[in-house]
Amino acid sequence: MNSARGSWARVLCVAALIIATSVFLNLRSRGETLPSPPPLASFPLQIAGWAGQDVPLTSDVLDVLGKGDFLTRTYRSPMQPPMDLYIAYFPSQRTGSTIHSPQNCLPGAGWAPLASSTMYLPRADGTAMPVNRYIVAKGADRLVVFYWYQAHGRVVAGEYSAKFYLVADSIRMNRSDGSLVRVITPIANGESQETAERRAVTFTQHLVPLLDTYIPR
Questions:
Q1: Using one digit for the tens of pLDDT, what is the confidence trace for 26-70?
Q2: Is residue 216 assigned to a domain?
Q3: Is residue 72 part of a domain?
């Protein structure tokens, strides 16, 4: 019984936060500061020996995503399974265009989570950034998924932490821009999960320094 009450309390808190965020952002009266980063289409096609190829989004998908800049690209390196990169950047989240969590998108596409955790990815400057790590499956196929939320030089893993900072930054900076970055690689036949994760970590470590140009601080 206590567990059920606790679950309902969490649901109500989350709902209240989402509603408060929406109301706050829509009631703001002063003009918003809108950054002008380079388009994601100009994101480097070469990343540490990986060569990228764009995967266009359909008009139906773009309609669902809303007003933002999006990149879907597959990076390949000889003799290795591919890396799929997705970046969604929203210059403003006050008009109803908001980040869609992979927690909803992946199950909607038929991928079932097998394991999840928050990991801390080492960066070149000696710090570490929080990243959501998922292992998902559909039939016999398995994927390693990393994703995080990034805005104004800050990286967070939690969806509700991202919403909290969205409100805080709107007050402090008069900005509501933000992004989601997702990296996916398959666990190939005969390959261990650990090997696939190491590949994803290595690729992500090369990817992260490039993001500041396209996701404004």
A1: 544 457 878 889 999 999 999 999 999 999 999 988 888 888 999
A2: no
A3: yes
